[in-house]
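Intended use. Records like the one below are meant for learning the mapping from a protein sequence to its folded structure. Do not use them to infer anything beyond what is encoded.
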Amino acid sequence: MTETAETTRQEAYRPTFTLDEGPLDEVHAFWLAGMSCDGCTISAAGAQNPSVEQLLNARLPGLPRIVLHHPVLSVTAGKDFMQAHHAAKAGKLGAPYVVLKGGHLRGDTCPDLLATPNGHQWLPASRIATENLHGTGCALSSAITACLAKLPEDASAEAPEQAITEAKQWLHHALAASHRLSVGKGRGPVHHFHAWW
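Structure written out for the chain above:
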């Protein structure tokens, strides 16, 4: 890397928190997988850099502790497992924003539900006729993270809701463009780079 490029990179990166503590202490991830170890679960559970244990135990500087609510990987079951779900629904989890994906619902639309400190709102979208549905949840989570990261420090109180809505729209276009990809066999992925090619 040239000295100019390194200087530009250092000037562009201005963290608002130290490496010892990030802007969030805790993030709840509700992973509503089937009652089996699907490919995504196996990939996450087998990850090494970082490992799931590092994320769950907050051992990575600058990153929050991940509280994973997963029906297969959880050590609780039944009513104990559902407590966090009910707390999230009632707005008592301590997490100000909760997104429930609705792609599995039947019908011509697939609305997601966004719960915020101001109440609940539906994020509507028409259903895209495609078999390329692999990775929609991970893609949406990543898009939400990216859209939230782009918010300025002085963003309005409604900005997170707008960022989540923007991420939902991005996923909708990624699904609509998925037919342009030819990757492997069976159900393919969404087209993450639909805006460029």
